[in-house]
Design brief:
This protein is α/β, with parallel strands linked by helices. It contains eleven helices and 13 strands. Helix 3 runs antiparallel to helix 4 and helix 10 crosses helix 11. One of its GO terms (molecular function) is UTP:glucose-1-phosphate uridylyltransferase activity.
């Protein structure tokens, strides 16, 4: 009898980076806490995990990341103050983040790369598949990428990565996948991975973006992975090993994403994300769009 696969319930969010591209704003504030309209970027990521059916969230943090824990904890003084004022709307918004998920935290210690951050999650994850969500990538809630990736993993086993077609001249900024088509139009079989290749050497223009659903076999591979580019343990190298040797932990598939993604790790894209999301808000959008039209017309 075939053993049923374990339903995925755990998500890992690496959040130990220094956020140097946003200095001096991130000198004392974690980059994950920078607001996107009126919520910190990290809350969008946790909400995405929960919406995909992953209520158990482990955040891999580092020094000066205590505000992340505080944000997802209760703030009784603030809640009491809002309750006394009868401000039920703001009270509900404050309580929303602390009620979102079952949150856990572990410190990475030495910043030794994404692969090492994922490896820090091994004691919490155990022997079941899990998701990894990078906080710099915000996926629009109307485009359920992670839910689809979980379904693909449950169907095929192994690991699943998110891919997006990019301008070939930009592929050197990403991990890059060599792929073969499958019978499912937006799902491909990954046959190889290269971290930030020169455009002339890239096997495709399929870039790896910050969503993964991983088989726990990745932990053993990461333990055996030597530091790569930048002296860091690269998750891409471990996934390359799994893609080349499916017997290690199943195949690697990719989901080609064509939806709305906001790269909040880049200053320009961060500002564009705020504008787009603000324009689409029912409470802010109408007035903000009117102002934006006037501003653009005047600047032209």
């Amino acid at each position: 009898m075939t053993q049923a696969r374990t339903r995925i319930s755990k998500a890992v969010i690496p959040a130990a980076g220094l956020g140097t591209r946003f200095l001096p704003a991130t000198k004392a504030t974690p980059k994950e806490m920078l607001p996107v309209v009126d919520k910190p970027a990290i809350q969008y990521v946790v909400e995405e995990a929960v919406t995909a059916g992953l209520p158990d969230v482990l955040m891999v943090t580092g020094r000066n990341k205590r505000p992340l824990e505080d944000h997802f904890d209760r703030n009784y003084e603030l809640e009491e103050a809002l309750s006394r004022k009868g401000d039920e709307t703001r009270l509900a918004r404050v309580q929303e983040s602390s009620d979102l998920a079952t949150m856990h935290y572990v410190r990475q210690g030495d910043p030794r790369g994404l692969g090492h951050a994922v490896l820090c999650a091994a004691p919490h994850v155990g022997d079941q598949p899990f998701a990894v969500l990078l906080g710099d990538d915000l996926i629009d809630a109307r485009d359920p990428l992670l839910s689809h990736m979980v379904e693909v993993q449950e169907q095929h086993g192994g690991s699943v990565i998110a891919l997006m077609e990019v301008d070939p001249a930009q592929i050197h900024l990403y991990g890059c996948a060599a792929v073969k088509p499958t019978l499912d139009g937006d799902v491909v079989r990954v046959t190889g991975l290269v971290e930030k290749p020169d455009p002339a050497d890239a096997p495709s223009n399929y870039a790896v973006i910050g969503r993964y659903v991983l088989d726990p076999a990745v932990f053993d591979v990461l333990r055996a992975t030597e530091p790569g580019r930048g002296g860091e343990i690269q998750l891409t190298d471990a996934l390359q090993a799994l893609a080349a040797n499916p017997d290690l932990g199943g195949p690697v598939h990719g989901v080609v994403f064509k939806g709305r993604r906001y790269d909040t790790g880049d200053r320009g894209d961060y500002l564009r994300a705020i504008v787009r999301l603000a324009c689409e808000r029912e409470d802010l959008g109408p007035d903000f769009r009117d102002w934006l039209r006037r501003y653009v017309t005047e600047e032209m």
